[in-house]
Specification:
- With 426 residues, the chain is α/β, with parallel strands linked by helices.
- The chain folds into two domains: 160 residues, Aspartate Aminotransferase, domain 1 (Alpha-Beta Complex); 262 residues, Aspartate Aminotransferase, domain 2, CATH 3.40.640.10.
- It is 38% helix and 17% strand.
- It contains 14 helices and 15 strands.
- It has a seven-stranded mixed sheet, with helices on both faces. A four-stranded mixed sheet has the order 1-2-3-13.
- Helix 3 runs antiparallel to helix 11, helix 12 runs parallel beside helix 14 and helix 13 crosses helix 14.
- The longest helix has 21 residues.
- It is globular, with a radius of gyration of 21 Å.
- The two termini are 39 Å apart.
- The relative contact order is 0.16.
- The mean pLDDT is 97.
- Bound molecules: pyridoxal-5'-phosphate.
- The site of pyridoxal-5'-phosphate has 14 residues, from helix 5.
Length: 426
């Protein structure tokens, strides 16, 4: 069986599901993956930005084992202590005012919940999202998603009354501006939607990733998010931050919105919340959540006791081991080294990020996205034992998202391989 895992999987599972690395993993621990042939890899993807505490953190494994022995499932038929315990813990790390929860299983499900809550609460229909954003694969979430056309192709018609405005992606400004000349034309574009496409008093919510994930690991200018907050306040529009990828310590703070000092009305969290167990959350103010009546939303598996136990252990171990501080420290050092590498490597068009959410944009002359070059780099790195993942519409951006427990030595070993790969393949 072991020898045939990849072949048997490919025969059984639809090719629609992309498995990024052609390796079969037997065991994982911390930042390391061991495959069935005895090869070891450093996972600089955290299993798609999810195992923030490292793979199989012993405290998380123990919490899962203990909870599975007591109660695996509740299915919303009865109460169990883990749900209440987790909500209490999350409240302490949330931005002030975000104090009521709906737990589900995946990022896309949390987005669906946020959209339904926003429409229900405001009684309005319109939804605004940003070009380049990724919010998931279910129909509502996929309608908001524009990070690549392949997520939308042949799925139209999608959810009605969804409008898109350009994400403030300064390296590839839609309006050809540079930082010296920028007058936030992307924000003006958004405001123009109100004059030409949907009046602001018919907009339920504006949904944005406070750091763009799948679309390219882009950090927006603070002023853009501040203006967005102001606009939402002015028109009674709910501001939704999708922190599915940027949350749970990934950027060196519990949530990326903490870097900008802006609190959304609704937040979605998933991926890192339970170290790889399926769990997500829609979080909002009590005032808003209490207007959502019984039965307006629901779930069978959401808030599963085992996933909740894993999330409780995740938060407590992140605090105990200072993982946020480590993410900020290791990420800062990595960006410094990458920026130094960039000086005599024009192929590294842009290096950007917050904490351990770092993007390196690979380009040819004239900033043309270098998709092929990136493919070669990722393949070279995998051969040398470093697992990397790309992002961006043109798949020309390397995302560095290792577990938040990574040491300085491990980071440097990974970057040594990456440096060698760029040198050899470019
Ligand atoms: C920002 C963001 N939102 C939503 C999702 C969807 O999450 P899931 O794949 O768990 O449905 C993702 C997944 O990558 C994401 O990065």
């Amino acid at each position: 069986m072991d020898k045939n895992i990849i072949k048997l999987t490919k025969e059984a599972i639809t090719p629609a599901l992309v498995v990024h690395a052609n390796i079969a993993v037997k065991k994982a621990s911390g930042i390391y993956l061991d495959d069935i042939d005895g090869n070891r890899y450093m996972d600089f993807t955290s299993g798609l930005a999810t195992t923030n505490t490292g793979h199989n953190h012993p405290a998380v494994v123990e919490a899962i084992r203990d909870q599975a022995g007591d109660l695996i499932h509740s299915g919303c038929m009865f109460y169990h202590k883990r749900l209440a315990e987790l909500a209490q813990m999350l409240k302490k790390i949330m931005p002030p005012g975000l104090d009521m929860f709906f737990f589900s299983n995946s990022g896309a499900e949390a987005i669906e919940g946020a959209l339904k809550l926003a429409r229900f609460y405001t009684g309005r229909q319109g939804i605004i999202a940003f070009t380049g954003g990724f919010h998931g694969r279910t129909f509502g979430a996929a309608t908001l998603t524009t990070s690549s056309i392949r997520y939308r192709k042949r799925y139209h018609p999608m959810l009605p009354s969804v409008y898109h405005s350009p994400y403030p992606y300064c390296y590839r400004c839609w309006f050809g501006q540079k930082s010296e000349t920028c007058s936030l034309e992307c924000f003006e574009y958004l405001e123009r939607l109100f004059r030409h496409q949907i009046p602001p008093d018919e907009v339920a919510c504006i949904v944005i990733e406070p750091v763009l994930g799948e679309g390219g690991y882009v950090v927006p200018p603070r002023i853009f998010l501040e203006r967005l907050r102001g606009l939402c306040n002015k028109w009674g529009i709910l501001l939704v931050f999708d922190e599915v990828q940027s949350g749970m310590g990934r950027t060196g703070k519990w949530f990326a919105c903490g870097h900008f000092g802006i609190t959304p009305d609704i937040m979605t969290v998933a991926k890192g919340i339970a170290s790889g167990m399926p769990l997500s959350a829609v979080i909002s103010q009590k005032k808003i959540m209490l207007e959502w009546p019984p039965g307006a939303h629901g779930t069978t598996f959401g808030g599963n006791p085992v996933s909740c136990a894993a999330a409780i252990a995740t938060i407590s171990v992140m605090e105990k081991e200072g993982m946020l501080e480590n993410a900020a420290r290791a990420g800062g050092a990595a960006i410094k080294r990458l920026k130094a590498m960039q000086v005599d490597r024009p192929a590294m068009g842009d290096v950007r990020g917050l904490g351990l959410m770092i993007g390196i944009e690979l380009v040819k002359e004239g900033k043309e996205p270098d998709t092929e070059g990136l493919k070669n780099i990722i393949s070279y790195c995998l051969d040398k034992g470093l697992l990397l993942l790309e992002c961006g519409a043109d798949k020309n951006i390397i995302r560095l998202a290792p577990p938040l427990i990574i040491t300085g030595d491990e980071m440097n070993r990974g970057l040594d391989i990456l440096e060698e790969a760029i040198g050899k393949t470019r």
